[in-house]
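Protein folds are increasingly written down as discrete tokens. With that in mind, we are printing a sequence and the tokens encoding its fold.
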Amino acid sequence: MKTTINKNNIGVLTFRKFDENVLLNSCFNIEELFKIILHDLDFVRFEIFDKNKKLLLTTNRFEEEPDVVIIQPVKVERDEEIKWTNFNAYRTPMYIYGKKIEWVVNSYRFRTKKSAVDFAESTNKSIVSTIEKFIDRD
């Protein structure tokens, strides 16, 4: 999709109970946007519209318009699986667990946290570059 930089692009953050319009100018902070998208429980979607109210970018996966860019920022999550349990009544603590720990990023599984964080950062950097095309930084 060919994106044109337009000074009249407007971002809309949609939460459960209200919508918030955001100006996409030099004061727009993408790190704050990612914190909201990844950690706010009331967040529903983020959309960017042009001056004619045409949708350009969204976080809604179920959007079916052909020229809309769909983004999905990723988050690193820990997945624990208990493999074995050892019990001894005379020991403190009485139970010892053997755990298998994996790190999950968008259904991709990693054995180390470092590799999962690297993958998430590279994915989010490409999303930031996509969002930057719609922001007027002049």
